[in-house]
């Protein structure tokens, strides 16, 4: 009885494959050669990386990028990409500055006038909102025109006195140059005068072009003022409609969060504008009275200059203070100049330690570096308008970003509960959690509740 031959199992080997004709393209065996690699793991120097339940086989590299260099290069191209995008944005803003600056000024003015218009229409129900808007706008324009008229009138009336004082000061300087250490004679004075006249004659073309440029600048300023006024009317009358139109471009999933952040940002701008206006008025009145008591001419124009300089924190006070000290030095000598320096130091201390903490409070207070550095950047990028708009922009961004990262401003918060015209909405944590919200009474209530 013959047993059936068992079926071959396993690989018959390369010799059998060649004999049966299987895989005719397989190269012949070479003694000592393991043959072609069956897997990537057969490659020389291959390594296996264990990632969870599966093993990933990678071929060995002749060189590898260091981890630190890989991270640095990744950060570098991302930073360059962001810098390029920022440069493009700044370039486009520079091209549209004739439109962008009036719109930003209209937003700042609306933060001051819109709360008053809404309060007027809510307090007196029979006053339509359009009429309340018109009344507030006319009142604001009248105040601005009256201030500028008073400043110009005071400057014109005080100019002869200042001219007389300036002439006397120049005469004294000439006498000192003749009798002082320099010992200049009349011929040297004549030579200096001739050089000045020759310089003016050689610069006539430049002066003429500058004058034409000034005329063109006046025309541009008038056009931008009209655009600011036109935009301000609609921002005050129906700023909510404009804001809803802007929100329509935000994705639906993030629209409520963006709405809350925008409302809080505008509320911070309302608080900043009010407080800055009151602080500037207090500084101007205090400095004006002090300059008048010292006997400095042009006290009212200098007070107005201090008022407008207060809208540029830190740098504005320095620049306007230098102008006031120079006028006092020309008109009254070194004694008056020192008195003006002491006066301005007192005004700045009153502002820094009393007015700003009382009016601004902790809700929209910025670090000094967050004030000086944006002003310097704005001055470099856009000149005086950039310096004026830097701090309000930082205030709005600070409040908006804080709202975006605040957990309580999540999707569960109804945007309608945030009043954009109330400065207390800018930083709710300082008004809901801080004991200073209700003074000592709130502090005692918290202590009583804790006990």
From TrEMBL:
Transport in keyword set: yes
Superkingdom assignment: Bacteria
Region (Disordered): 1-51, 411-451
Compositional bias of kind Pro residues: 1-11, 25-37
InterPro entries in the record: AI-2E-like
Subcellular locations according to the entry: Cell membrane
Signal sequence range: none
Keyword Transmembrane helix included in the entry's annotation: yes
Family membership noted in the UniProt record: Belongs to the autoinducer-2 exporter (AI-2E) (TC 2.A.86) family.
Protein name according to UniProt: AI-2E family transporter
Organism of provenance: Actinomycetospora aeridis
């Amino acid at each position: 009885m013959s047993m059936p031959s068992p079926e071959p199992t396993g690989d018959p080997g390369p010799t059998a494959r060649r004999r049966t004709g299987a895989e005719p393209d397989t190269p012949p065996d070479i003694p000592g050669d393991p043959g072609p690699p069956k897997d990537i793991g057969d490659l020389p120097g291959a390594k296996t990386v264990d990632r969870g339940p599966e093993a990933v086989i990678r071929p060995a590299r002749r060189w590898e990028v260091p981890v630190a260099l890989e991270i640095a290069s990744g950060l570098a191209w991302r930073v360059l990409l962001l810098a390029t995008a920022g440069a493009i944005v700044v370039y486009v803003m520079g091209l549209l500055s004739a439109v962008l600056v009036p719109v930003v000024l209209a937003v700042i003015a609306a933060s001051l006038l819109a709360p008053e218009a809404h309060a007027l229409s809510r307090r007196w129900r029979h006053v339509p909102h359009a009429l309340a808007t018109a009344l507030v706008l006319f009142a604001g324009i009248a105040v601005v025109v009256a201030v500028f008229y008073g400043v110009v009138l005071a400057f014109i009336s005080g100019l002869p006195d200042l001219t007389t004082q300036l002439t006397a000061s120049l005469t004294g300087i000439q006498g000192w140059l003749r009798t002082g250490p320099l010992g200049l004679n009349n011929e040297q004075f004549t030579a200096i005068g001739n050089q000045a006249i020759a310089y003016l004659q050689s610069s006539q073309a430049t002066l003429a072009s500058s004058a034409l440029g000034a005329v063109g600048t006046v025309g541009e300023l008038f056009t931008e003022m009209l655009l600011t006024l036109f935009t301000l009317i609609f921002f005050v009358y129906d700023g909510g409609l404009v804001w809803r139109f802007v929100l329509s471009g935000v994705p639906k999933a993030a629209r409520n969060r963006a709405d809350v952040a925008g409302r809080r940002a505008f509320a911070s701008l309302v608080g900043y504008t009010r407080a800055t206006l009151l602080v500037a008025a207090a500084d101007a009145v205090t400095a004006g009275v002090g300059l008048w008591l010292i006997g400095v001419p042009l006290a009212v124009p200098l007070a107005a200059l201090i008022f407008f300089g207060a809208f540029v924190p830190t740098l504005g006070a320095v620049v306007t203070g230098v102008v006031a000290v120079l006028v006092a030095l020309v008109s009254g000598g070194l004694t008056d100049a020192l008195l003006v320096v002491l006066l301005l130091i007192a005004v700045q201390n009153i502002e820094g330690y009393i007015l700003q903490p009382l009016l601004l409070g902790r809700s929209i207070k910025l670090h000094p570096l967050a004030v000086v550095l944006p002003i310097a950047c704005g001055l470099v990028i856009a000149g005086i308008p950039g310096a004026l708009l830097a701090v309000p922009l930082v205030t709005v961004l600070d409040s908006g970003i804080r709202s975006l990262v605040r957990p309580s401003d999540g999707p569960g918060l109804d945007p309608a509960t945030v009043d954009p015209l109330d400065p207390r909405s800018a930083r709710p944590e300082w008004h809901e959690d801080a004991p200073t919200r209700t003074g000592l009474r709130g502090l005692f209530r918290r202590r009583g509740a804790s006990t």
